[in-house]
Amino acid sequence: MGEYEYRPRRNARRGRRNGFSSSPPTINSAPPKIGGRVASQSRKAPRIERPYTMGARPQKRRRSSGPGILFIGLLIFVLAAVVGVFLLSRPASANILTYPADAIITFNGASATGELEALDLEPGSYTVLVERKGFQPLSTSVELKRGRRARLEYTLNPLPFPMTIATHPEGASCTITTADGETVTGDAPFSAECVAGAMTLTLTLDGYNTYTREIFLDEDLNLDLWLDPEGMVVHALNMFSTAGAPKAVAITPDKTEAWATILNGPPSIEIFDPLTGKKLDGIDLGTDGAVEVVFSDDGTKAYASQMETAKVFEIDVATRTVLREFDTESAWTKVVELSPDGKTLFAANWSGNDVSEIDLNTGELRRRIPVSKTPRGLYASESGTSLYVAGFDSGWLERVDLVSGDVTAVFKDGGALRHLVADEATGRLYVSDMSKDLIWVHDMKTGETTKLADVDEKPNTIDLSPDGKVLFVSCRGENNAKSYYIPGPEWGSIVILDAMSGEPLDAIVGGNQPTALDLSPDGTMLMFSDFLDDRLRAYEVPGYETFLAGGGGYYEAHLAAIKK
Predict the structure, then answer these.
(1) What pLDDT does residue 267 have?
(2) To 5 degrees, how large is the angle CA 393–CA 394–CA 399?
(3) Spatial distance between the Cα atoms of 204 and 211, rounded to a whole number of angstroms
């Protein structure tokens, strides 16, 4: 029957059960119309029915895993081999640290302070040596392994040392605090045995500033310490004796030495360690003493004047030997001044009433410049064209034109002008007036002179901080009614002023007639002499901001303290 076979019984029953008619199906081969158009028939892949068994899961197809496992195992083996070869080929290394942190480490032929790192070492046994002054040395063996970095830390055992402390004035309470917080106390003069290491010393005494100092003890220690009156801003470092009548003092640029001229010499010059007061050397300039001394900018040469011979001596600082003598060809030479370029030396001749100008290249006297009576202070301008001269008996401030030689009186005070210092940045020239007990300031740009401040009796030597903000004034004190060669009714002083406003920042009560005065080139150390007591004093100087915060320091209190 064509394409389909008709089975009337069996298929009829199945057809009825399935909802079909028993008549043969009619097949419409024409495609359906959608929206008036003929749609193409989609072709679907025939669905294949798989047999299904009740109670059983469909069987999943398994893949073979044997080759993947073998690959992973091989990869692990190769990596392990590479790591093993890397580790077996790597060198050993060590990082060594010590306490104290400045101990010397010696290891494998190398030395270092505090920490040593050694790389590319063969594995094996090595010796470590650690040493420091004040501690028991340590020597030990270490085993270094290939491919490993050893971190080694060693602490040295401290040794005991005696410590003694004296204070001025006596009786200060002393407290020593070690790095681990342990304390030792006692009253000065004080002595104790302490183990080496870092510690803090604190001194207290009623009426005086509390003093604190960090110490690293590594040897026998004897401290001689000065306490400052309550409120004082500067701090006393030392006081020590000199030969007769220290007229001037100059601190070397590196602050390791203080050169004091001895008016009643010989010795003409004495050289000290300013911190310990130990005398390092002395220089004789014939049979007489010396008045003033200055250093060249590089600190290799010193120039010292001698009144009696009217000479200036050029001295090699390192060897203490006299290189040249310059004759001023005048009388009673006192203050000496170097030109800014270091090629010319000026010398004020007290009794000659003139200034000698010496060429340092040739050593020859170029000229003598007449000035007013008894010239004392000198200042050579930075431009090299002017020299300022302070007349002691005339009370005149004069300016010498170094090109023409003309001398002009720029200020006539009528007092006793003694010393000059200047701040080129502001054009301010400071002048001490020993007769009127004050400080003048002369404007080198405008020519105007005004009073900066009143100070104590008989101001003489002055100096200025490197930043131009603080002025230090040495005051001899009131003269004895019989003679100024003997101590007067009051102590001398150092008055410390704000260089711009003239306001007092601090003060020091000195001895009999403070005269010599110098500030170190870095501005951190001040030295002055007690002229009639034959001694020098050294002080630590803070910065300008510390002075400002001090509220005048000891200035007000010192006014009563200078009375004997």
Answers:
(1) 96
(2) 120
(3) 7
Q: How far is Cα 242 from Cα 261, in angstroms, rounded to an integer?
A: 10
Give me the count of residues in the chain: 564
CA distances (Å), 237 to each of 167, 226, 494, in order?
Answer: 11, 6, 15
Tell me how many degrees the CA angle 88-89-94 measures, rounded to the nearest 5.
Answer: 90
Preceding peptide of 100 cis, ω within 30° = yes
- The CA distance from 424 to 428, in Å, is 7
Task: Using CB atoms within 10 Å of the CB of residue 407, give its burial: 0 to 12 exposed, 13 to 18 middle, 19+ buried.
Answer: middle
Dmax over CA atoms of the chain, in Å, equals 168
CA distance 116 to 113: 7
Give residue for tokens 């005398």: 279
Are 245 and 264 a contacting pair, CB within 8 Å?
A: yes
Q: Which residues contact 246 (CB under 8 A, 6 or more apart)?
A: 260, 261, 262, 263, 270, 515, 516, 529, 531, 534, 535, 536
Nearest to 223 by CA among 179, 306, 167, 160: 167
Closest by CA position to 197, among listed 68, 100, 308, 301: 100
Token pair of 100 as six digits: 């104290």
Would you give the end-to-end CA distance of the chain in angstroms? 156
Does residue 26 sit in helix, strand or coil? Answer: coil
* 487 beta partners: none
What would the two tokens of residue 168 be?
């001025």
State residue 72's pLDDT score: 76
With a CB cutoff of 8 Å and minimum separation 6, the contacts of 208 are 169, 172, 227, 228, 229, 230
Q: Using the predicted structure, report yes or no on whether residue 295 has a pLDDT greater than 60.
A: yes
* Predicted confidence (pLDDT) at residue 60 exceeds the cutoff of 90: no
Secondary structure (DSSP) of 107-136: ETTEEEESEEEEEEEPSEEEEEEEE-TTEE
- Rounded distance between C-alpha atoms, residue 525 and residue 539, angstroms: 6
**516 vs 539: CA distance, rounded Å:** 14
- Those residues with Cβ within 8 angstroms of residue 239's Cβ, 6 or more apart along the chain or in another chain: 168, 226, 277, 535, 536, 537, 538
Cα dihedral angle (204, 209, 213, 219), rounded to 10 degrees?
-60
Determine the 3-state secondary structure of 249 from DSSP.
strand
Compute the distance between CA of residue 478 and CA of residue 490 in angstroms, rounded to an integer. 6
Residue with tokens 């034109």: 401
What integer pLDDT is reported at residue 80 of this predicted model? Answer: 64
Q: What is the pTM (predicted TM-score) of this model? A: 0.80
**Half-sphere CA count of 456, side-chain side, radius 13 A:** 35
Measuring CA to CA, how many Å separate 19 from each of 7, 14, 26, 491, 507?
17, 9, 15, 140, 128
Which of 306, 303, 310 has its CA nearest to residue 266?
306
Q: How does pLDDT run across 121-156, given as a tens digit for each residue?
A: 999 999 999 999 999 999 999 999 998 999 999 999
Token representation of residue 191: 């002595």
- Can you spell out the DSSP letters for 487-550? --SB--EEEEEETTT--EEEEEE-SS-EEEEEE-TTSSEEEEEEGGGTEEEEEE---HHHHHHT
